[in-house]
Amino acid sequence: xxxxxxxxxxxxxxxxxxxxxxxxxxxxxxxxxxxxxxxxxxxxxxxxxxxxxxxxxxxxxxxxxxxxxxxxxxxxxxxxxxxxxxxxxxxxxxxxxxxxxxxxxxxxxxxxxxxxxxxxxxxxxxxxxxxxxxxxxxxxxxxxxxxxxxxxxxxxxxxxxxxxxxxxxxxxxxxxxxxxxxxxxxxxxxxxxxxxxxxxxxxxxxxxxxxxxxxxxxxxxxxxxxxxxxxxxxxxxxxxxxxxxxxxxxxxxxxxxxxxxxxxxxxxxxxxxxxxxxxxxxxxxxxxxxxxxxxxxxx
Length: 299
What we know:
Layout: H1 2-16, H2 19-26, H3 30-44, E1 49-51, E2 56-58, H4 60-83, E3 92-98, H5 100-117, E4 121-127, E5 141-146, E6 154-167, H6 169-174, E7 188-192, E8 200-204, E9 210-214, E10 216-221, H7 224-232, E11 238-241, H8 242-251, E12 255-256, E13 265-272, H9 280-292
Parallel strand pairs: 3-4, 3-5, 7-10
Antiparallel strand pairs: 1-2, 5-13, 6-11, 6-12, 6-13, 8-9
Helix pairs in contact: 1-2, 1-3, 1-4, 2-3
């Protein structure tokens, strides 16, 4: 029990960056929290925190220990919730990895709703377009947008989307007419640099065969938001998901080009490590997302 109290005190200080704030959270005195952390450092034989008169920070050992210790506390909270007949609610920290643009546009508005339903869960959201390793990097769950890939992860479909070829009305007014799919090779393009096809955009033609067209970007960016902004500034063609450009198309700020040539389908999925017993917090979030995207806003 003493070891657990020391771990709780250390994690509170590490998370809040203050002995005073940690003491308030735990209902202890500052001196008591400081003593518990010192005892833990003595028990481990290493310094976990750098202390100055102005701030507290983690040492390298403290940072590594904090990740493992938080997981232990989260697992304990989950076990306590599952074992109690009166508190079967999901609990503990839930680490989620999501893509930047989709996360900001379509997931950020949902997090508050989830927390209202599950107040014992603490969300830890990371936004990145890098393909992370959920197991190695300690994530409980990821939302990914793209083509399905073979994986050892469990996948729950959330929605599907399509990639749209479009540009601003002003750019199309000034530029040569696009009558054939091959004509886009002669136009200015704004390219998403993480696109798997590089500087070739692939379409499914009305006759059912694929068409791969080389493009010549005037601008490349690893952000769909930047590509969209450039298109709205009349800089050229973009090839972006409907979840990003749908409102612009509906408002006439962007115009779809050759709609009978379809872009790749994108699968939006919730992924989590394959486990025999899925934690309640993960199951609750996945079920919540499935329900939230039953009728995607961009469709």
